[in-house]
Amino acid sequence: MIQIDDFLNRSVDDLYTELGFELAGTEVGEDGAVRRTSAGAIPPSPKKARENGIAIFQTLNLKINRTLCEEWDACAKIQNDFSNADPRQLVVVVSDVLSAVFLGIPVVIISAIVVKIGIHKFCDCPSTS
After folding, report:
1. Mind listing the pLDDT tens digit of every residue in the chain (129 residues)?
2. Predicted TM-score (pTM) of this structure
């Protein structure tokens, strides 16, 4: 839980940067497949890592949305089963859902980004009020 707490204490921009560093020297397809493009590459600058992290997240966005929001039905699950869950628990649950379809992707970082954005906002859930 220490790593999850660390991620939740960071800004979304910092998480994009972390994602960019984690996947430096790789190419990520829309299907979530990770392909190594350069072994032993020089680590990117923080600015470049952030840009890469945003690009990776945008590339995976459709698959994350399909997996989490549609197939797992996050809007209903969050409202019914996890309405009082703390953010750490949500990161664990989302990571579990995403780990079934993403190999070689740091799903905890992706999940922390989704939780920080807000699952309701990310999945475009209908208003409950």
Report:
1. 679 999 999 999 999 999 999 888 877 877 777 777 765 567 789 999 999 999 999 999 999 999 999 999 999 998 887 777 899 999 999 999 999 998 889 999 999 999 999 999 999 999 865
2. 0.89
Q: Among residues 115, 86, 80, which one has the least CA distance to residue 98?
A: 115
What is the C-alpha radius of gyration for the chain, rounded to an integer number of angstroms? 15
Rounded Cα–Cα distance for residues 102 and 107 (Å): 7
Phi, psi values for residue 31, rounded to 5° = -80, -5
Specify whether the CB–CB gap between 67 and 98 falls below 8 A. yes
Other C-beta atoms lying within 10 Å of the C-beta of residue 48? 14
Quote the CA–CA distance of 23 and 17 in Å, as a whole number: 10
- 100 burial type by CB count under 10 A (0-12 exposed, 13-18 middle, 19+ buried): exposed
- Rounded-to-integer distance, Cα 122 and Cα 115, Å: 9
